[in-house]
Amino acid sequence: MSGDTITTPHERPVTPSRAARDLGLRRSDLDLAVHLGLIRTVPDEGGGGGRRVTRSELDRVRSAEGFPDSLLARVEVVGTAEAARLLDVPAGRFTRLARLGLVVPTKWYLNRYRAVVWLYLAEELSRFAADEESVSLLKARRMPEGPRALLDAGVDLRPRNWRGRHRGFLLRQAGGPWEKAGAFAAFLDPAEIAEAVPDPYERSHLNRFRPGPPLTSAPGSPAAHIAEQLMTADDADEVALLRTELTALVREAREERPAPRPAPRRAPVAPRPLAPPPRGPKAPRGLLGRLRRRPAVATAP
């Protein structure tokens, strides 16, 4: 009997929608749990290109202590007003803390006015409030001079911090060096990618693994444009870091699995000249030849 394992329908990985139903979660809660690494997924071996959740992973999540409340508490997100209430500060002060990068957004969406609404993990905000080093920032009547100067200069680290968190999610999903390279390329402008990866065949192959922004909207729409802006690094040091990592990963990917290239064209082969048709025996030259070419003379009997 063969040693191959036969996978029954019950054992096959399920789609995220089915996994959410089986766990009694909203799809958005499951997606965020996957994003944070709380629920593991595997590639879809059926060729769909998405991700799936194994039955063993569903059993592991269900068997965790306090499920589902413990999981829901870890994926609870709040906006600015609720975050300010959790920290017991005015909404304006919370926004300033977020702009300074002291609290990191975990996701965002566009409201009906196409304004970016940042969302934060309630669990992380609770830890921030409990940290003794945060007391002066939360309770002081005025911001310390250093942070206040940064805010006056227009600093806003929310997009960059979100990109860093989203990059971690993409790297957890990446299976090999090309996929990891794509996770870094996702946050670079095409012109930066062209400079970091000058080979057009490698760049074309890399684009297959370069994820787009986590927003479904029509290409070219205002919402898609905003999503692309948020996804693209704009600080010089952030761009330099991404390019350095991208170059190193493409070098590693090239050694492990080179990018496909078109087969080299063969030089056209000149047709061989046709052999001349066979010729009969040559006629003898000289007197004997002339005699043979003369017509025969009839002789009398």
Unreliable stretches: 1-7, 296-301
Oligomeric state: single chain
Strand content: 5-15%
How would you characterize the largest beta sheet?
3 strands, antiparallel
Q: Which descriptor suits the 3D outline?
A: extended
- Rounded to an integer in angstroms, the radius of gyration calculated over CA atoms is 36 Å
Fraction of helical residues: 40-55%
Structural class given helices, strands, pairing?
A: mainly alpha
Number of strands: 5
Count of helix runs: 16
First-last Cα distance: 101 Å
For the largest sheet, list the strands in their spatial order.
3-5-4
Order of helices and strands: HHEEHHEHHEEHHHHHHHHHH
Mean pLDDT: 87
Give an overview in words.
The chain has 301 residues and is mainly alpha-helical. The protein has 16 helices and 5 strands. The chain has helices spanning 16-23, 27-35, 55-62, 69-74, 80-87, 91-99, 122-130, 135-139, 145-152, 158-173, 177-185, 190-196, 200-207, 222-231, 236-256, 286-293; strands at residues 42-43, 51-52, 77-78, 107-110, 116-121. It has a 3-stranded antiparallel beta sheet. β1 (42-43) and β2 form a beta hairpin. α1 (16-23) crosses α2, α10 packs antiparallel against α11 (177-185) and α11 packs antiparallel against α15. The longest helix has 21 residues, at 236-256. It is extended. The protein starts with 15 loop residues before the first helix and ends in an 8-residue tail after the last helix. Residues 1-7 and 296-301 have low confidence and may be disordered.
